[in-house]
Amino acid sequence: MYQEGEEAGKLFKMFFTKLTAAMSDRAAINKAFNKKLNTMRKATIGTEEDLDFLHCNAHVLLGHANSANKTLKNVLCSAAECKKSTKCSNNRNNENTV
Predict the structure, then answer these.
(1) Is residue 24 within 8 Å of residue 33, measured between CB atoms?
(2) What angle do CA 19, 22, 24 make, to 5 degrees?
(3) CA 42 to CA 39: how far, in whole Å?
(4) Phi and psi dihedrals of 61, rounded to 5?
(5) What Rg, from alpha-carbon coordinates, does the chain have?
(6) Hey, where are the domains in the chain?
(7) What is the DSSP string of 6-60?
(8) First-last CA distance in the chain
(9) Which tens digits make up the pLDDT trace of 31-90?
(10) Which pLDDT band, with edges at 50, 70 and 90, does 95 fall under?
(11) 95 Cα distance to chain centroid
């Protein structure tokens, strides 16, 4: 529930007092937000202490995981097809291999 006046100011100050770290990604807009948040926090609670910013790398990791999954699927599918094929040179069980 939104509170007006002095009570809201107290809550805002209490929030900034307890806030010590934030997480965002490395996008330019998030860097600008982090800078403004840090400046506002310092002005509100009267400190020179900076916030700690943790930069999430989930998007990078998800991209690597998706690529790895596709590659692994291709390798496994190729291996499965190879076992079925009698003309595949990678099939070690096939006596007709070259």
Answers:
(1) yes
(2) 160
(3) 5
(4) -65, -40
(5) 28
(6) 22-84
(7) HHHHHHHHHHHHH--EEEE-S-HHHHHHHHHHHHHHHHHHT--PPPEEEE--HHH
(8) 76
(9) 899 999 999 999 989 989 998 988 777 777 888 888 899 898 888 877 766 666 555 555
(10) very low
(11) 49
Return the residue matching tokens 């040179």: 89
Cα 5 vs. chain centroid, distance in angstroms?
A: 38
Tokens of 42: 């310092």
- Identity at 53, one-letter amino acid code: F
Structure tokens that stand for 34 in this block: 């982090």
Report the pLDDT value the prediction gives residue 86, as an integer from 0 to 100. Answer: 57
Tokens of 66: 């998706």
pTM assigned to the model: 0.51
